[in-house]
Structure to design on (362 residues):
């Protein structure tokens, strides 16, 4: 090996060591940078527990941590831990929590438009709602509406199929049975139930069971067949009334503080949106499977299952649409979203004929 070659090798070796040294010195800086970018957010919820918590809020938090590779971690709190369980959007807007999971219809007193996006007695079913939200501009309108009127970022998160109409201490089949019925509910159904003769009240989820047990209320609505196993209403109310004409669908809301959202890198904002959409579809399919298994549980517990008379089902839809049209006369956002939903429903008129095949039961 010539002196020149030896000299070149020494020079290259020195450069390599210098590079390794620089890399070694830079490595802690890279680690520090990654740590600095890790965010820990609090999520307020309206739920004491159950599927809304487990396959909704907590499942979403897990998805976010997974998709962002730990850059965003979300700690989920039960209803009431960070503020009023029925005012999660306010808790988020005020910065007490960076995120919240709620049913938007709880805010109907501030703006009745919220019930169109959370589902009400005039809504179409969950299959149509999912199509409207993600393919017909519904989610975009929801986001713009909540930005302008509530000052929060809003995304769909979780959806259920038609709810149980009532867990009741009294049998309810007809319009006559609705008269004077003390039922717990929320949102626009408070007004509509009154019009149909009932005596509705509202309360947070954690307060329903004792009120039903003590007879303070005659009946309650809450969730679907499977979701209602967890709170155990069927243990203190003998009658299970179906279908949930008051709530043919129920999309729920992820609300995010605008200042916190603005600090989140764009790539992680997109991943949060993906996590919310994925959790929504997974909740729908999970609830569908579990609902199918749950009727047998109620039967074995001694519940009597009652199907509402057609007169109640038809009257509920009529009252709901009439109520909605009146709201649209005095609320531009309500009218915009209602018109979009009614137009979408008209496009799907008769869809059961081409989307479903008749199956003989039994």
């Amino acid at each position: 090996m010539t002196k020149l070659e030896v000299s070149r090798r020494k020079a290259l070796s020195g450069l390599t060591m210098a590079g390794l040294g620089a890399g070694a010195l830079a490595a802690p800086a890279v680690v520090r940078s990654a740590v600095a970018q890790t965010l820990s957010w609090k999520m307020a919820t309206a739920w004491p527990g159950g599927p809304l918590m487990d396959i909704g809020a907590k499942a979403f938090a897990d998805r976010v941590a997974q998709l962002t590779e730990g850059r965003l971690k979300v700690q989920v709190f039960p209803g009431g831990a960070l503020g009023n369980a029925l005012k999660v959007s306010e808790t988020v807007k005020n910065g007490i929590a960076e995120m919240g999971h709620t049913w938007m219809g709880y805010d109907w007193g501030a703006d009745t438009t919220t019930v169109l996006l959370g589902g009400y007695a005039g809504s179409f079913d969950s299959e149509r709602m999912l199509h409207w939200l993600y393919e017909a501009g519904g989610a975009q309108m929801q986001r713009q509406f909540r930005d302008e009127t509530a000052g929060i970022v809003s995304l769909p998160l979780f959806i259920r199929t038609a709810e149980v109409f009532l867990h009741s201490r009294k049998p309810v089949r007809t319009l006559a049975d609705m008269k004077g019925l003390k039922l717990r509910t929320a949102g626009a159904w408070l007004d509509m139930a009154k019009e149909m003769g009932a005596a509705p009240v509202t309360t947070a989820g954690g307060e329903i069971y004792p009120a039903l047990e003590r007879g303070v209320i005659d009946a309650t609505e809450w969730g679907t067949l499977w979701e209602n196993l967890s709170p155990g209403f069927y243990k203190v109310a003998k009658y299970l009334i179906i279908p949930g004409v008051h709530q043919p669908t129920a999309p729920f809301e992820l609300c995010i503080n605008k200042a916190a959202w603005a600090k989140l890198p764009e790539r992680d904002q997109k991943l949060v949106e993906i996590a919310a959409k994925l959790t929504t579809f997974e909740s729908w399919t999970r609830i569908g499977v579990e609902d199918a298994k749950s009727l047998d549980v109620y039967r074995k517990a001694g519940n009597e299952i009652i199907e509402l008379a057609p007169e109640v089902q038809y009257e509920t839809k009529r009252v709901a649409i009439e109520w909605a049209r009146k709201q649209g006369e005095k609320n531009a956002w309500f009218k915009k979203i209602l018109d979009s939903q009614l137009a979408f429903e008209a496009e799907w008129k008769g869809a059961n004929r081409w989307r479903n095949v008749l199956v003989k039961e039994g």
Q: What stands out?
A: The beta strands are 39-45, 72-76, 99-102, 152-160, 166-168, 183-184, 219-220, 239-242, 250-257, 304-307. The longest helix spans residues 3-37. The radius of gyration is 26 Å.
